[in-house]
Write a structure and sequence with these properties.
The protein is mainly beta. Strands 7-14-13-10 form a four-stranded mixed β-sheet, with no helix packed on it. It is elongated and about 195 Å long. Strand 31 and strand 32 form a beta hairpin. Mean pLDDT is about 80; it is low at about 220-235, about 555-565, about 585-590 and about 595-605. The chain is built from seven helices and 34 strands. This is Cadherin-4. One of its GO terms (molecular function) is cadherin binding.
Length: about 700
Amino acid sequence: QIRSDKDKEIHIRYSITGVGADQPPMEVFSIDPVSGRMYVTRPMDREERASYHLRAHAVDMNGNKVENPIDLYIYVIDMNDNRPEFINQVYNGSVDEGSKPGTYVMTVTANDADDVTTANGMVRYRIVTQTPQSPSQNMFTINSETGDIVTVAAGLDREKVQQYIVIVQATDMEGNLNYGLSNTATAIITVTDVNDNPPEFTTSTVSINASAQGCRDTQPACNQGGLSWNHRMFGGWKGSLKAVDYEMNRAFMLTVMVSNQAPLASGIQMSFQSTAGVTISVTDVNEAPYFPTNHKLIRLEEGVPMGTVLTTFSAVDPDRFMQQAVRYSKLSDPANWLNINATNGQITTAAVLDRESDYIKNNVYEATFLAADNGVPPASGTGTLQIYLIDINDNAPELLPKEAQICEKPNLNVINITAADADIDPNVGPFVFELPSVPSAVRKNWTITRLNGDYAQLSLRIMYLEAGVYDVPIIVTDSGNPPLYNTSVIKVKVCPCDENGDCTTIGAVAAAGLGTGAIIAILICIIILLTMVLLFVVWMKRREKERHTKQLLIDPEDDVRDNILKYDEEGGGEEDQDYDLSQLQQPETMDHVLNKTPGVRRVDERPIGAEPQYPIRPVIPHPGDIGDFINEGLRAADNDPTAPPYDSLLVFDYEGSGSTAGSVSSLNSSSSGDQDYDYLNDWGPRFKKLADMYGGGEED
């Protein structure tokens, strides 16, 4: 109650303001305006608001202030109306087995919302239960004020008890169970393992039956392990070793020792290892046959006939104590060249072996064979046979290129030719390039100049050859033993060329196979087309002149040109056939090359002998040394007997001595006597020039 000393003189009215009165929370407190008594209008919660600050006012009936406002402080007294609450309902902790008493495990925490300065908020902890109660029912204790859990007894053993469940209780009122409020939580304590037990066998001897998956060192599986066992008497212990062989060892006696990798924990006085005896009996099983030599390599010449025995590729059956037969078959024979005897493994050829076949890689043909026994179940092994084929000269060389182009006049360009041979050295180059003697026009029109062992040059022998496409046969001979030759045809396009040696446009048309008359006709058509264009431009002014020009171009009677048309070669007359032509012909065989008289050679052949040494250009030449370098190189080239003398007389063969043909020096032609050539005037305008020269026409 509040009261003013002036209430005896005047009537006073009382009021309060502040939080809990006219400010939220509103109307928690009220006051009697006449008597000044204050009241609480509803229950109060200290945990919601612990104190209030109000101001009391006194005024007269007119509202005038009678007293200065006074401050009122109201405190809510705490009551034990809240239980302790654990932060977690389940706590997890761990402790090593064998830990000493007093070892810290974990801490649990509970909070009380009541006033901690009073007994209402003072929490105390205790352990209610422990499960399991082994080896003691009180293995742990808890600090009543801090909540720290520690070990209180020895004997923690993970191999016996791996986990404890402890129920912890928190009580306020300083732990008074009669007046205080309580709550509980669960602490799960895991016992962690330490190395306190050495390994040991539960029995001293063990007998095991093992199957022998035998193999040989030539088989890759031998190095990957083959025997394993898992015996209950060993407590799940498992071991493995290399594949055993029944034919080598039928039983094994082992002493097995087991030890711990990590050292025992301190204070453990026990041996760190244990031993036991193991007897292993090997059971025989069917093993696969194997080829002792795998891969097997043989060498032979290609081209051996079908049915030739190459080798015996046999396998070995490792099962010595089993009566089994081995059968052979082909597994891989890409070209189907081989046969194998099913009983003894003898390999013969089923076709001719060709080194140049696509199935050959680096001169080696590879086939795979299968060897299978008749065991139960059957087993098989594979072996690879490699055949190295030695090259023989069974492929004639082929001329390259197949087509070429050359100018109709010599000395402008040449055709470089070479040869391709499917064989290998020494059955390839150096090659011999020759022109056949038949037909005679080949050697008459063409010539071959040798550059080196693999290349030669084809060029014109005559001064002019009419444009067109010519099939030029060339004989190419390799260096095999015996040598093989082939007559190949190169299509040569002969055409007129410009000063650079390139075929002209007109020449290209001529080389396509058109004669001179056809070329003239084409040119006339072109000129006509050009003339028609000019006529269209100057149609009115030059009509008569262009008509006269056109008449001159297309009149065949005036188209008399000084051209000599080659129709055929008549050849010698009957009087010129009284000699043996065989003495002048090139022989078809190579005996003239192989049996040539020493010291006699063709001047266009590369002589055999030491070659001159050309000077080597210095890496960083001095300007004054360049002239000396050129002069030395020129001098060496002039004195090089191996350089082809392209501008020299070419001797194609040596006639030899004792020729059966008569001397041609007695052959002569006589110009004596008069002959009448007037009949040339009757042969038409194309022979008019000859008639004027020899016929003694009217103009003479």
